[in-house]
Amino acid sequence: MNSSTNFKMIGNIAVTRLTGEYSWERVVQLMITAICDARDQHIKNLMIVVTEATGFQPPSLMMRYRFIHEMVEASGRVVRIAIVVRSEMIDPQKFGVTVAANEGVKGEIFESEDEALQWLRSLK
User: Fold this and answer.
1) Is 1 inside a domain boundary?
2) pLDDT tens track of the chain, all 124 residues?
3) How many structural domains does the chain have?
4) DSSP per residue, the chain
């Protein structure tokens, strides 16, 4: 297996962190790579922590839509994804969560790693 993501395992949850300054496009690319790597390694629960990534503005509705469709494809509809971000990155209506659910992917967005872990652990 040729993975480019370094996961830290917490039980059956893979965790990856993005730190540094990136464009939105690069953040998306790194998250999609992590999702693909989790799928390829048969990991069902993935937490992506983006709170320490900077250099980009909150995405527009269209940017969120494109990312979610890439995420759905990358997940193979088998990886359950919790993304942890700063509060200003969260759409109040959680548009992306709704789109992912409509496409058959369990995904959620959080401000807290503890909440994200709790949510992933609650999934059956």
Assistant:
1) no
2) 455 788 999 999 999 999 999 999 999 999 999 999 999 999 999 999 999 999 999 999 999 999 999 999 999 999 999 999 999 999 999 999 999 999 999 999 999 999 999 999 999 8
3) 1
4) ------PEEETTEEEEEEEEE--HHHHHHHHHHHHHHHHHTT--EEEEEEEEEES-PPPPHHHHHHHHHHHHHHHTTT-EEEEE--GGGS-TT-HHHHHHHHTT--EEEES-HHHHHHHHHH--
Please name the amino acid found at residue 51: T
Domain coverage including residue 68? 8-122
Considering the domain boundaries, does residue 18 fall inside one? yes
Can you give the CATH number for the domain in which 50 is found?
A: 3.30.750.24
With a CB cutoff of 8 Å and minimum separation 6, the contacts of 73 are none
Residue 60 inside a domain? The answer is yes
